[in-house]
Design a protein that fits this description.
heterodimer, A: mainly alpha, MetI-like fold, 2 domains, two-stranded antiparallel sheet, 13 helices, 2 strands, globular, B: alpha+beta, D-Maltodextrin-Binding Protein, domain 2, 5-stranded mixed beta sheet, 3-stranded antiparallel beta sheet, 17 helices, 10 strands, Extracellular solute-binding protein (chain B), signal (chain B), TAT_signal (chain B)
């Protein structure tokens, strides 16, 4: 086991080795960070480029691929179902994000006030975010069920007409949105709460001395100071909203329900690639989704940038 | 002895890692004969017995449940970790284009067993150029499931033979239903328009494509099924519960079985387990009879042997034993999958009176239906095409879409589908 003994430091010849060594001087550091890059290359970069290659082919997943050039993309831009899926995704995103943000803010304000069992409430509101969506879908479909759902029996009880939540195109969108809200409201409330607690108390004190009422304080102090946090939450919900899949699939099935009202972009992609075994077209849809998300990100970015630019010019 | 240094240790580790990475085996567990099946796809008791019986050959059944198709596609395109044997569902025609990925069971001597199985089922597992790709597992013969107690309460025929006579055709069935619904307001004859379409098509010998790959969905069988489904909706006979195949899509339907809102349904044999599980309180109230319009089949699986199986002959021995007429009767008794071998219909194991159906011998009803099914050609796109039609029927039924527009939309969806697939 001589090798484990400390070696003597090399003397004179070391000087000659320096240029050779310099090249590999950072090797240990590169090696240390390499796992991420290797995994990224294998599981991140390679599939991305391969999907582009795949989009130019017709492939059923088993046999040989057939080169068809841009045919898949030509089909995609004229595919009414894909455009419908884009529309659905955005409608569901708006229908879920707007009420969710308001609700999360109210909950955060409530949690920020001096109440008892704060920790318990925080856990309770965060629970939906870590609950299995599929398990919850079973509960939700009992809530939204047309004939025997809790919601419809409640509507009938107060003298309103029952709604075909899962058989009406708008009902489906509402049901999916409610499920998204339910899942993410607690998460955003916790984020908002952190933002609220980061607002220094002396600003509120100054506002009170200046004679601001609670409503004024909220709109003039709390909301502006929460803006970065709210932007974060909107960006996060946009990322999630563009990828809505599970909620729609478990509530209305793979085919997207009546008049494809529940077909989101990702659900449509899943349908084509994994249910109809058309992997080439599936890949083309994935790139279509990519383009939509890029455009959306640019719009988002410009909207976020604008107020600051205005401030600077002022 | 060479000293263990850190460097050597790391080098050895890297080498082992690299070797393991390169040498991914062709089959899922080398040295064994793996069978991929899904839950309730085969009887656990029969599989256990096979594992003992074929222990020498290394028989190793593995339950991969409902992800089977995705896993199979992934392993096939990767060419590694393939099962030696695998169950395939009724979308078997989708694999015909890649039949070279499977063993032609005829080369294993399957022909000598041909006479034991239903001819149409055998044909459904055979590729257009005559290779036997899938060995018959089960079938999905259609029958009319109905509520005996409620039929009797309405003063209508309620014994299986009488009901079968009264609802010989779909038109008779609808007329019967109108009368029934007048006596029992608030209840429905049948689930939805989709059921009517699907089971009408299940009775037709010509489906959506012909053997030359031409689309024939504009012709009589499909038109007839479409009109029939619409007429059921117009007459107000469908509940529109809209079983969309989602995890939870059938909440309403299950409730309707329990509270008797759904008076009857035309369905394949495999629904029996679901009815028993979701409406246990209705035990004894159900009966079965011949489906209106005659025998039909919907669904049913196969077992195929993949190309890389090192011992296809041994694998074939296992498959043919697992699916022998005697064992098919056991599969039916244990997990409710209906046999594809006529000898199993009369097997005492399969012919147990079922108390859920008032002591009726269900195998007799399904067996009659299974024997009457006519051979049909299924194209790889049949299921997707059928979905295009039924999606639009749902739109008509649930959202009040104009039927003519619905037909046009279904047709254009199918055109796009076939265009994408390179058929048009």
């Amino acid at each position: 086991m001589t090798d484990l003994l400390p070696r003597k430091a090399p003397s004179a010849p070391a000087v000659a080795q320096v240029p050779q060594r310099r090249r590999f001087r950072h090797l240990p550091q590169y090696l240390a960070i390499s796992p991420f890059y290797i995994l990224f290359l294998v599981f991140g970069a390679y599939p991305v480029f391969y999907s582009l290659y795949l989009a130019l082919h017709r492939w059923d997943g088993i046999g040989p691929m057939q080169w068809i050039g841009l045919d898949n993309f030509a089909l995609l831009v004229t595919d009414a179902e894909f455009w419908n899926a884009i529309g659905n995704t955005f409608i569901i995103w708006v229908m879920s994000t707007v009420p969710m943000t308001v609700l999360a803010l109210l909950i955060a304000l409530g949690l920020n006030s001096s109440i008892r069992f704060k920790g318990l409430y925080r856990i309770a509101y965060f629970m939906p975010n870590v609950t299995s969506v599929v398990a919850m879908a079973i509960v939700f479909s009992s809530v939204f069920s047309t004939e025997f759902g809790i919601l419809n029996s409640f509507l009938s009880a107060i003298g309103l007409d029952p709604v075909g939540w899962l058989t009406d195109p708008w009902g489906i969108k509402v049901a999916i949105s409610v499920m998204i809200i339910w899942r993410w409201v607690g998460y955003n409330a916790i984020i908002f709460l952190a933002g609220l607690q980061a607002i220094p108390a002396d600003i509120y004190e100054a506002a009170r001395i200046d004679g601001a009422g609670p409503v004024q304080t909220f709109f003039r102090v709390t909301l502006p100071l929460l803006r970065p946090v709210m932007l974060f939450s909107v960006v996060m919900s946009a990322i999630n909203g563009m990828q809505v899949f599970t909620e729609a699939q478990v509530l209305v099935g793979d085919r997207g329900g009546v008049q494809d009202a529940g077909t989101t972009m990702v659900l449509y992609f899943y349908n084509m690639a994994f249910l109809e075994n058309d992997f080439g077209y599936g890949a083309a849809i994935a790139w279509g989704i990519f383009v939509v998300v890029v455009i959306f990100a640019i719009i988002n970015w410009r909207l976020i940038q604008r107020p600051e630019r205005a401030e600077v010019s002022r | 002895m060479t000293a263990l240094t850190r460097r050597r240790f790391l080098a050895a580790g890297a080498l082992a890692f690299a070797l393991a990475g390169c040498a991914s085996p062709r089959t899922a567990s080398p040295g064994k004969l793996t069978l991929w099946y899904w839950t309730r796809g085969l009887s656990p008791a029969v599989l256990d017995e096979a594992a003992v019986r074929f222990a020498g050959a290394g028989f190793d059944p593995a339950n991969v449940s409902h992800d089977l198709r995705h896993k199979l596609l992934a392993t096939m395109s990767g060419g590694a970790y393939l099962p030696d044997m695998t169950m395939l569902n009724d979308d078997i025609a989708g694999y015909f284009g890649d039949a070279d990925q499977f063993v032609d069971l005829n080369t294993m001597g399957a022909q000598r067993l041909r006479g034991d199985y239903l001819p149409w089922k055998w044909e459904a597992g055979t590729t257009p150029d005559g290779r036997l790709l899938g060995f018959p597992v089960d079938t999905g013969p259609a029958a009319l499931f109905y509520r005996h107690d409620l039929f009797a309460q309405a003063g209508m025929p309620s014994e299986p033979d009488d009901v079968a006579r009264a609802v010989a055709t779909w038109e008779d069935y609808f007329a019967f239903g109108e009368e029934l619904q007048r006596a029992l307001p608030g209840r429905y004859l049948i689930t939805d328009a989709k059921t009517v379409f699907t089971y009408s098509m299940a009775q037709e010998p010509r489906k959506y494509m012909d053997r030359q790959g031409r689309f024939i969905g504009d012709e009589e069988p499909v038109r007839r099924a479409w009109e029939r489904a619409l007429s059921a909706v117009r007459k107000g006979l469908t509940a529109g519960y809209f079983d969309n195949g989602s995890t939870t899509g059938s909440v309403d339907r299950h409730a309707a079985w329990t509270n008797g809102t759904e008076l009857s349904l035309v369905n394949a044999s495999w629904i029996t387990g679901e009815i028993k599980e979701s409406a246990p309180t209705t035990a004894g109230a159900w009966r079965l009879c011949r489906s209106p319009g005659g025998p039909g089949n919907q669904g049913g699986s196969f077992i195929a042997i993949t190309r890389y199986c090192p011992q296809p002959q041994a694998a074939f021995e296992i498959v043919s034993w697992l699916l022998s007429p005697t064992n098919q009767a056991r599969h039916y008794a244990d997990v409710g999958i209906f046999p594809s071998a006529p000898a199993a219909f009369t097997d005492v194991t399969a012919r147990q009176p079922d108390p859920f159906f008032g002591g009726q011998i269900t195998a007799d009803v399904f067996g009659e239906s299974a024997k009457g099914v006519q051979p049909a050609y299924f194209s790889p796109w049949d299921i997707d095409i059928s979905n295009c039609f039924t999606d639009e029927l749902v739109n008509v039924e649930s959202a009040g879409k104009d039927p003519q527009q619905a037909w046009r939309d279904a047709r254009s969806a199918i055109d796009r589908l076939l265009q994408r697939s390179g058929v048009l």
